[in-house]
Amino acid sequence: MVIVALIRKELMLLIRDWHALALLFLMPAAFILVMSLALQGRFAADQAVSLSYYLVDQDQSPASQGLVQQLAVAPELKREQSVEPVDTLRDAVHADKAQFLVLIPKGFGAALDGIAPLAIQLQSGPSVEPAVSELFTARLQGLLAELYLSKRLGILGVSLPDPAGAQKLLHADSLYAAGARPSSVQQNVPAWLLFAMFFIAIPLSTTWVQERQQGTYARLRSMGMSPVRLLLGKLVPYLGITLLQAVLMLAVGVWLVPLLGGGRLELGHAPAALCMMALAASFAAVSYALLVANLVSTAEQATIFTGVANLLMAAVGGIMVPRFVMPVAMQAVSLYSPMSWGLEGFLDVFLRQGDLRMAAPWALRLLVFGLVCLGLAAARLNLRRRS
Amino acid sequence: MIEVQSLSFRYPGAERDALQGLSLQVKAGSLFGLLGPNGSGKTTLISILTGLLQPGAGAISIGGEALPTGMRMVQGFSALVPQDYAFYPRLTVGENLRFFGGALSLGGAELDARLQEVSAVADLESFASTRAEHLSGGLKRRLNLAIGLLNRPRLLFLDEPTVGIDPQSRQFILDAIKRLNAEGATVVYTSHYMDEVQQLCDSIGVLDGGKLLARGTLDELLKAHPGQRNLEEVFLHLTGRRLRD
């Protein structure tokens, strides 16, 4: 009966705190929607590559025309049609209207037959990443090598029987299907869910600080309320709230993100593992919140501490920057963040067809973290009680 | 009802004892006024007697129960009405009363009956669905008192229950306390309003520096300190005029 009264009270207080509700439910939903849609093309390894370019053929020779045609049929390259002068097109590339400018100089075709061939000019835009630039350069170099070789062999009276034969020497494939990298929605839903779960420390500790300051905590203790009951009275309702966060944010990933044009979150094939991860992450987040509530003296301290600590855990733990784009050393460091444990566990379930056994090590880490936080919170509560 | 023998208490890290060998008796059914300047040890004493602090050296017995071992029993028949508004501003009056009733393990018809009972004592019936944060100062004090009555306490600790309210609300609360005392409750009452204590209490103790400086009825205190015309003068005579804050 006492626990029921405590749980009911916490829920009533939270329902009437619009700021806390926005922090716990609107913030992660907004992050999931914005980040899933904004980074949609940046995550999955099977995404279609499309490199845009302007082309100016000042030569108009058979050789340059042949190169233009080869570029046109390359599936990953997309020519932006324009009849503007070179300087205008260079400005357009500078303004990121296309990624590359290819300029075939006059005399290019004729020089191929001579001893001093003319170089094609390739310029990339300021926002083109080095790897992308390398990709376009390699593609162009391959076509030029083919063109150059066939010209040289032609001089010797030999023709290439199968110009595309060299491509058969390489078969490239992605391990994406085996779960190497998440899609945008697979990354962002659990990431921002965990971020929001750990923000439960703000409403929980604010309520507790107010109880201490207003004297309700002392009144409850004078009524014989034990510290264990006080802790349980917070733990149970806030566990329910974080689990509700999990359900709602997964629903956002499954139904809302696709409605807005994003990918759909596939929940994997192990609902038990998913429930285990949600429970473990909830327990870790609420226990951490209880520790924060017992460490701080004012609501301001709680807000600042939680904000800073959560941002650090998120930055390190692969929430803001996915682990797979981190350098190896940072990937190792990230495994010290509880948010990272939660994220890896969820990704095991969503992405790697993980079952209970596969996700269990991550859940266990969260459980141990939660137990340590809870133990420290109880010890701190006891110490505060004596003083 | 309350027997305190040679009680000492020091806060962790403090240089001196907050209570220094304090001895005190409060008879069952009495309305005992505990006076003292700020920092005199009143709150420390009440905190020990209500289980908020663990006693240091000394012996305490309340209603025949030795502390700290019998504290759970004592908490069953006693209640603290703190100086702070010790309830939840975002909950209504009814929700606050129902919550604290639940925290006392009350439920069902028994809880409903207690809610009606304490609401009547504090005249809160028509405010059951008003959020506590929207109550006036006087109503907040009445709610604070009502919560303290939920377990029908035989021993009631009232820590400055009339601070910051209008004379009407103040008189209402004083009348309610008198009625509770007349019905058999022992009351330990702290206040800085000397006229209140003079009007209300049948015995008075003056505490300062963690020691009980004087104890008795108003007449006894006036007789023991000739030349002092009222309780305030006795109090200033005993504790001096030095500022404590």
Explain this structure to me?
The complex is a heterodimer of chains A (387) and B (245). Chain A is mostly helical and 387 residues long. In chain A, 66% of the residues lie in helices and 5% in strands. The mean pLDDT of chain A is 88. Chain B is α/β, with parallel strands linked by helices. The mean pLDDT of chain B is 90. Chain B has helices at 42-49, 71-77, 93-103, 108-121, 137-148, 167-182, 194-200, 218-224, 231-239, and strands spanning 2-9, 19-26, 31-35, 59-62, 65-67, 78-81, 155-159, 186-190, 203-208, 211-216. Chain B has nine helices and ten strands. The interface between A and B is medium-sized, with 25 and 37 residues.
Helix content of chain B: 25-40%
Low-confidence stretches of chain A: none
Largest sheet of chain A: 4 strands, mixed
The assigned structural class of chain A equals mainly alpha
**For the largest beta sheet of chain A, what order do the strands appear in spatially?**
2-1-3-4
| Poorly predicted sequence stretches spanning 5 or more consecutive residues of chain B | none
Please tell me what the overall shape of chain A is. elongated
- Helix percent of chain A reads 55-70%
Mean pLDDT over the full residue set of chain A:
88
Output the radius of gyration of chain B: 18 Å
Silhouette of chain B: globular
How is this structure best summarized?
The complex is a heterodimer of chains A (387) and B (245). By secondary structure, chain A is mainly alpha-helical. Chain A contains 16 helices and 4 strands.
